[in-house]
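Bumping with the actual sequence this time:
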Amino acid sequence: MLGSWIFCHVNLPMRCLVHGVHRWRWPACGWRNVGHFRKGLHTTRTSFSARVTPVFTRALAFGDKIAIIDQNGEHTYRDLYTQSVHLSQQLCEVLGCSSGDLKEERISFLCPNDASYVVAQWASWMSGGIAVPLYRKHPVQELEYFIQDSQSSLVIATEEYVRDITPSAEKLGLPVLPLVNSGSNGCASDKAVEAFPLAIDCPEWKDRGAMIIYTSGTTGRPKGVLSTHQNVQAVVTGLVDKWEWTKEDVILHVLPLHHVHGVINKLLCPLWVGATCIMLPEFSPQKVWEKFLNPRAPRINVFMAVPTIYSRLMEHYEEHFSQPHVQDFVRATCQDNFRLMVSGSAALPVPVLERWKNITGHTLLERYGMTEIGMALSNPLHGVRVPGDTAVYKEGMYWIKGRTSVDIIKSGGYKISALEVERHLLAHPSIADVAVIGPPDVTWGQRVSAVVKLQEGEMLSLKDLRSWARDSMAFYTVPTELLLVEEIPRNQMGKVNKKQLLKHFYPT
């Protein structure tokens, strides 16, 4: 699966981080082992602690150090641990588990980007369960698919999402456990926490499932990727080593928490080393710049995002920071405070790389990964950094060149299956035929464009199509462009030449 496309073109060297043995669940055929990369890749394994344990087992060592800062306030490592213990006890009670070990039952949870997410994740692990994070912006049908496909036993939801998710849970016959938004006060005493018989006594953490993250469905419906605790720890410790994470780091978190980028790179890495994570409920260019330039402690020194976010930040900069002395202040502040700025989840356009360097003095570090394997390759922390996407191994180095499949669209950091979008759009009563293409876009990387043949006598506007699609499609997969044609050209095998369509509509 990997070797068939990863050897493509030569452009630039990348350095290998780490890989583990991952499994994913294909809905029709059960759990399968992916195993190591194919022999020709010569991947090297970064060493990590032989004892495999979840990140929450390290929390009490950091005690009253601030772990999370969110819209509800500050949360220490002890706070998060205590609240997780309390929720774990509730989980076992609701599911009737007297042993305190759910033995890898799946726990779906719907939380905002704040400390409650960490509490739900840790509680799932403390109970011996597998965490299945859901995303609030996914439509109901998509959420129900993830819950059912993962074979979840229960749904955790914070107060603001309980009403929305309860009908779906009831439809699937699952209980809903409400989670009060995490404040700074724990729900269980220190003695109760110390005495709590955690599943860390189990010597087999490394083989136990940790979480199921769903792919974007580039070859069909999204597939649940099961990572074991060993997988997660291998990737986390590899990144901690290669990017030199320390407990003094402060990272600003603005990404969704249902992808590896947001879950592992931006959350589990800082929590592993005792660093501080400042979490915004959602991305806002203004708020991000305010955080960047805020003189009060804790000062942010690590930032990670997708190329679209960097483009949006530059747009805000051009509009609001036009005066030379302000630009000098921005550059000086970023140079003095930040030690690392990372871009991932999509190929970084060279103009964005160069412009960001002019604005902040930082060359963005690109890395490469997949839901199935986590992070695999990275530009060096120290040394020359260069842009790209699809990987090839040659003469002891990894090289990246761009994505080659026309059926995989990278828009705003999301990997989108053109085939899956087409499947949804064909359900529209006015559409007779459709082909989805991904023309280049300066802000989004690529945009989702629908080339549509209408049923005879029908009419359809982009506004109407988008309104209809929002009920059944993830927001990032909804087309942003509608191109109406009398006929979609197909060959004798019935296939559409999408490269020709792209050249026809976008000749430059």
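The tokens above came from a reply further down the thread. DSSP finds 16 helices and 26 strands in the chain.
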